Amino acid sequence: MDIFNDDEVVGWCAHHEDNVTLSTFEWKGCWNCWKYFGSVKPLIRIEDAAEKYGVSKKTIYRWIKAGRLKARLFERGRSFFTLGAVKFWAIAEDQNVTARERR
Fold this sequence. Notes:
By secondary structure, the chain is an alpha+beta fold. The chain has one domain (9-92). The chain is 24% helix and 24% strand. It has helices at 22-28, 46-53, 57-66; strands at 9-13, 18-21, 37-39, 43-44, 71-75, 87-92. The strands form 2 sheets. A 3-stranded antiparallel β-sheet has the order 2-1-3. A 3-stranded antiparallel β-sheet has the order 4-6-5. A hairpin with a 4-residue loop joins strand 1 (9-13) and strand 2. Helix 2 crosses helix 3. The longest helix has 10 residues, at 57-66.
């Protein structure tokens, strides 16, 4: 999965009955309504990545900065009065970090 390709379909919105591209995901802030969102190509949160790799969130951020994990900071483009996070770090779940990179 190319986490930087805005046209990449990453899920399905049950509420709108439509595919969700990375561009739509960012513009609408789809991370705020997981109850409607069904992932096709999963994006995971920093917390989930830390649990998956057995490290702290701080280590995940360090790996992102070092280029060991591909991640993208999404910032909701649509200003709306709804509650929810305006920014969201997402990591493509299908990445693998080797033991050597964990140092």
